[in-house]
Write a sequence for this structure.
């Protein structure tokens, strides 16, 4: 890929040497973790292709779209309502932040005890490693956790940042605040793109994004079969790619993959005979953060569900499509996003209910709670999660880690012990 896209990366002001090293590590990592799996679905070839072109073709598409007057908007959180972006004919991309590269640069302007996700996105920008960040006309931050909130202040010195205020509770006053924020965001997107969002455009965008969520819901239903027909790693990858691929193309490809999966389920073919069914819950895992799922799936277990923003939290709820005018559509969007049960909310009883429901529906033997080091909201909430799961009869282990590889052996020992305990 390198030769073909070098001129484009240069125009985007990437540090070409550092970027080449990043791609090399990514390719090796991908080969070891993904390509080594046996009996994968044919449909995964599309995902392999997208990944192999992660900084190539998709970036080229974004550049072409920009040359034709479309705007690119980058986001870090599933709270940012995509429907508004697509309705203004802009393109939304998730800014992945799952690698350690750039951390050194980030630590020059952020405290060391900041979560890896924040350090990663700031580091990618400072070290000029991410063509997605460099392609954005607007980067949308949000006031979810304190770390992110303060990081965007610093990040705004380097990128065109817009910040949405996310409520911390779910009372009537919080909904009113969120509605005002959605309207303010709509105005900002209209100002950026020069296009006004009509009811018709917004309805189309709602349907477009709902279709993608429906395809991912279908995938989640199918993967829950006995025996497990697809590895957790592959599903994680699909969820990760959903954040930056074109939604229409992605939905079509995932529906095709689901057709194939359905046949596999009908034939009773599994990918992990005798493996212990586990669920992951907690912090999001951005590309290429595959460390823990890989460790789990090389320790006699298989991941059958992710209670995460890169997982069911992002796909569980649809926007009501029955609204008849612009204001009703906006209300439907406001209501759908208010259902998100991020640990940044207080109180957050819905999340506990969702986790227990998921564990039951997926028929898992146990849950692994994943927290990024220094992430207070999820670390704090993990105690409540464990209690709720225990009461429902599901064992849980809380794992805290970052993007480094130093603790792989230690994590493997803990995961193996947990798998043996619940088997
Ligand atoms: S975990 Fe919370 S802050 Fe992070 S992406 Fe999800 S909703 Fe946003
Ligand atoms: S992982 Fe935790 S600390 Fe890091 S950005 Fe998300 S909520 Fe904030």
């Amino acid at each position: 890929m390198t030769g073909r896209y070098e001129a484009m990366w240069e125009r985007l002001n990437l540090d070409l040497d550092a970027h080449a090293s990043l791609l090399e590590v990514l390719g090796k990592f991908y080969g070891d973790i993904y390509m080594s799996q046996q009996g994968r679905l044919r449909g995964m070839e599309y995902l392999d292709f997208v990944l192999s072109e992660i900084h190539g073709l998709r970036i080229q598409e974004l550049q072409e779209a920009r040359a034709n007057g479309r705007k690119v908007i980058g986001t870090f959180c599933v709270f940012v309502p995509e429907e508004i972006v697509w309705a203004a004919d802009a393109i939304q991309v998730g800014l992945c932040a799952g690698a350690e590269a750039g951390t050194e640069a980030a630590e020059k302007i952020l405290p060391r005890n900041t979560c890896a996700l924040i350090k990663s996105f700031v580091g990618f920008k400072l070290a000029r490693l991410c063509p997605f960040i460099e392609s954005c006309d607007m980067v949308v931050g949000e006031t979810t956790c304190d770390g992110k909130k303060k990081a965007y202040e610093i990040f705004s010195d380097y990128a065109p940042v817009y910040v949405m205020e996310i409520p911390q509770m779910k009372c009537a006053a919080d909904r009113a605040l969120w509605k005002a924020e959605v309207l303010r965001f709509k105005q900002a997107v209209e100002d950026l793109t020069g296009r006004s969002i009509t009811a018709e455009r917004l309805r189309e965008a709602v349907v477009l994004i709902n279709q993608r969520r429906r395809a991912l819901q279908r995938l989640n239903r199918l993967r829950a079969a006995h025996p497990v027909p697809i590895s957790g790693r592959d599903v994680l990858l699909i969820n990760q790619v959903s954040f930056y691929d074109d939604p229409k193309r992605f939905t079509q490809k995932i529906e095709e993959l689901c057709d194939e999966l359905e046949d596999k389920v009908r034939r009773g073919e599994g990918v992990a005979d005798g493996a212990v069914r586990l669920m992951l819950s907690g912090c999001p895992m951005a590309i290429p953060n595959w460390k823990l799922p890989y460790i789990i799936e090389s320790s006699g277990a298989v991941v059958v569900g992710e209670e995460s923003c890169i997982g069911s939290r992002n796909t569980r709820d649809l926007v009501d499509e029955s609204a008849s005018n612009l204001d009703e559509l906006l209300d439907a969007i406001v209501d759908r996003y208010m259902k998100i049960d991020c640990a940044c909310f207080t109180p957050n009883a819905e999340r506990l209910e969702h986790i227990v429901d998921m564990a039951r529906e997926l028929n898992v033997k146990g849950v692994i709670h994943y927290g990024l080091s220094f992430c207070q909201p999820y670390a704090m909430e993990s105690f409540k999660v464990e209690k709720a799961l225990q009461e429902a009869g599901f064992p849980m282990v809380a794992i805290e880690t970052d993007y480094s590889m130093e603790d792989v052996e230690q994590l493997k020992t803990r995961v193996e012990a947990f798998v043996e305990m619940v088997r």
About this structure: Strands lie at 72-75, 91-94, 138-142, 161-164, 276-282, 301-307, 366-372, 396-401. The mean pLDDT is 97. The pocket of iron/sulfur cluster (ligand 2) is lined by residues 115, 117-118, 144-145, 147-148, 283, 372, 375, 377-378 (CB under 6 Å). The domain at 5-168 is CATH 3.40.50.11890 (Rossmann fold).
